[in-house]
User: Which sequence fits this backbone?
């Protein structure tokens, strides 16, 4: 009997542990944040996206704009997380992919009713990189051909002007 | 009997169109230079190719259509209408080559949106676009705001009667200075002085808000061009929300209002006649319509408790309203928030503000304040006339730079344009509904396109039906040119087919 009780207790404990270990908050997309703003207002969310533009520091805090491929959402964070950042996305950079856990605000009272996330923690998921753009080969060729056509036209215009004068 | 246009008529049109195309090509040298400075070699070739296409097509037209004949009224209007379509197509070439747009139609959409200072966008992955392409997006707003023809008039066309006809065709019926070329140059002078000052102010604000100097200057120049020309493009996908800054919002509100005022009013104030600001019928009407539409917007938002405090109401409600009323289209909220949060009353009053527009002879679209003022003044006078003794004679006047006696033809013209705009807004709305969008959303987006505003509630996106994109392109074009040039172009083609 004791064995059965111990076994049951052990199984129940195992299930409990498993449920704790397996629990992980799923990330929300920017579209969900915008579309379900009223529902998610004031809740803790997990959001991730590429850092775009640049971190804008305001005193002890900074604004980060994270784009998940659908929209970019503003994240208000303490400057202590800025040391995670290596690249911000623009034409020549793929920005760092960051995961933010924080409180979502539909109309933030601190920031003039912006839709934003106040970060509690930030994790670096993927480091960004420098993007080198190779010149597409057909473009220089096309430019040379068009220059030739333009030169012919210019000569044509000059000739027609001379003929008119005569 | 309708006269069929002859070959000489076509040659004059082709000749002036060629000159305007060359003028447009010359403006591509600015992003080309910036691509060189920023070492963006793909965009450099894109702009070189586009520049050469403009020069080739412009010179070919001049060579084929060489003539000494001056433009008549019909020719002037036709040139303007065609010039805007051509500018939209040629201006789209660098966009297409950049690979940030899904199709060439999308490129034309954004190009027309830029030239017509609308601000609706279909660009993809804007946050990774080259600086030079971004500069071109904003520059076409600056060019479009002053007028594509004004660019050519300033540098390439002599001050003939034909030049004046093109100037009028571009929905600018007021000359600031006696000569039309001098007027065009003055418009550029005012704009460039404001551009320098505005860029410096925005750069300082941007720097203060945590941006690097390089970015704050670049963003400052771009945002100024789009705000002063009541365009609405922004360097980042979040539009003005990217900055999360009250100071940036206040500065852009001031710039948007400056851009929506009559150039003639700017000139009068430059001449130190500051009293004109409070006595002018346009500024008075503008003030009243802003107050009225903001009151309705605020009531709508407050009723639903959308924003928790007065600051929120100002930064979201008032900002969107000023942006819509001036025809700019800058947003500090996401497009879908209009639909999910704003409610019918606030959205409706914002639609009304967009439909009304700013002042005549400015860069705004919409019905415009002078016409609204004249129509309401005429209505008021009619009521007054009924109440006065029958034998009484009184002269109806309004103040616009000087005292103007109100005449029947002014009222008729104002009412006609008023009705044309209402028809254009409604037509786009009905077509939107045909594609399955809700009535208020369709009307909002249609008004935004036709009044060259650029606020969006989410309909405008790359996945929307191609036919709806074409409808919005046409609405932006017709709205910017205020109907007359487009009507004349249609009449010209009809005469070509059916004339004798």
Assistant:
């Amino acid at each position: 009997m004791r064995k059965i009780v111990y076994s049951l207790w052990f199984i129940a404990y195992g299930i409990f542990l498993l449920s704790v270990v397996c629990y992980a908050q799923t990330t929300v997309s920017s579209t969900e944040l915008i579309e379900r703003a009223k529902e998610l207002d004031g809740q803790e969310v997990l959001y991730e996206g590429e850092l775009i533009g640049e971190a804008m520091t305001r005193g002890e805090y900074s604004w980060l704009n994270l784009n998940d491929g659908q929209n970019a959402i503003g994240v208000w964070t303490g400057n202590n997380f800025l040391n995670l950042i290596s690249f911000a996305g623009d034409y020549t950079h793929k920005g760092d992919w960051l995961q933010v856990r924080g409180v979502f605000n539909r109309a933030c009272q601190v920031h003039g009713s912006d839709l934003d996330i106040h970060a509690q923690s930030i994790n670096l998921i993927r480091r960004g990189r420098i993007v080198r753009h190779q010149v597409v080969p057909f473009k220089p060729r096309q430019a040379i051909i068009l220059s030739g056509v333009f030169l012919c036209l210019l000569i044509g215009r000059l000739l027609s002007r001379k003929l008119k004068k005569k | 009997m309708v006269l069929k246009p002859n070959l000489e008529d076509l040659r004059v049109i082709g000749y002036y169109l060629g000159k305007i195309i060359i003028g447009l090509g010359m403006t591509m040298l600015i992003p080309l230079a910036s691509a060189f400075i920023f070492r963006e070699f793909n965009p450099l070739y894109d702009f070189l190719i586009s520049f050469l296409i403009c020069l080739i097509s412009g010179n070919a037209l001049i060579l084929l259509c060489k003539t000494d004949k001056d433009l008549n009224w019909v020719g002037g209007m036709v040139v303007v209408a065609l010039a805007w379509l051509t500018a939209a197509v040629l201006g789209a070439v660098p966009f297409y080559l950049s690979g940030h747009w899904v199709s060439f139609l999308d490129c034309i959409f954004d190009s027309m949106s830029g030239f017509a200072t609308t601000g609706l966008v279909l660009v993809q992955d804007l946050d990774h676009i080259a600086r030079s392409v971004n500069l071109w997006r904003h520059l076409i707003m600056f060019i479009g705001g002053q007028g594509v023809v004004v660019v050519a008039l300033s540098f390439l066309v002599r001050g003939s009667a034909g030049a004046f006809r093109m100037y009028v065709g571009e929905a600018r019926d007021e000359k600031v200075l006696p000569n039309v070329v001098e007027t065009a140059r003055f418009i550029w002078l005012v704009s460039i002085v404001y551009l320098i000052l505005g860029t410096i102010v925005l750069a300082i604000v941007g720097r203060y808000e945590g941006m690097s100097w390089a970015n704050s200057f670049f963003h400052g120049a771009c945002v100024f061009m789009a705000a002063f020309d009541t365009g609405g493009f922004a360097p980042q996908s979040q539009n003005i929300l990217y900055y999360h800054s009250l100071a940036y919002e206040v500065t852009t509100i001031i710039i948007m209002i400056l851009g929506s005022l009559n150039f003639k009013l700017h000139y009068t104030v430059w001449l130190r006649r500051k009293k004109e600001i409070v006595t002018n019928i346009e500024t008075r009407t503008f003030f009243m319509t802003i107050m009225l539409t903001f009151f309705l917007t605020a009531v709508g938002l407050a009723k639903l408790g959308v924003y928790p405090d007065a600051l929120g109401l100002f930064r979201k409600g008032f900002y969107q309203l000023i942006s819509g009323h001036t025809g700019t289209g800058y947003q500090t909220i996401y497009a879908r928030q209009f639909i999910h949060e704003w409610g019918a009353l606030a959205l409706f009053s914002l639609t009304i503000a967009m439909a009304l527009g700013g002042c005549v002879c400015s860069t705004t679209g919409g019905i415009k304040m002078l016409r609204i003022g004249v129509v309401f003044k005429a209505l008021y006078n009619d009521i007054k006339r009924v109440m006065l003794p029958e034998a009484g004679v009184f002269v109806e006047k309004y103040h616009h730079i000087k005292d103007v006696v109100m005449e029947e033809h002014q009222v008729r013209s104002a009412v006609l344009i008023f009705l044309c705009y209402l028809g254009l807004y409604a037509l786009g709305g009905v077509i939107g509904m045909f594609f399955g969008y809700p009535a208020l959303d369709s009307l909002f987006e249609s008004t935004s396109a036709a009044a060259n505003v650029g606020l969006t509630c989410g309909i405008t996106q790359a996945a929307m039906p191609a036919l709806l994109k074409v409808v919005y392109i046409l609405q932006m074009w017709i709205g910017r040119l205020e109907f007359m040039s487009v009507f004349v172009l249609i009449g010209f083609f009809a005469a070509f087919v059916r004339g004798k």
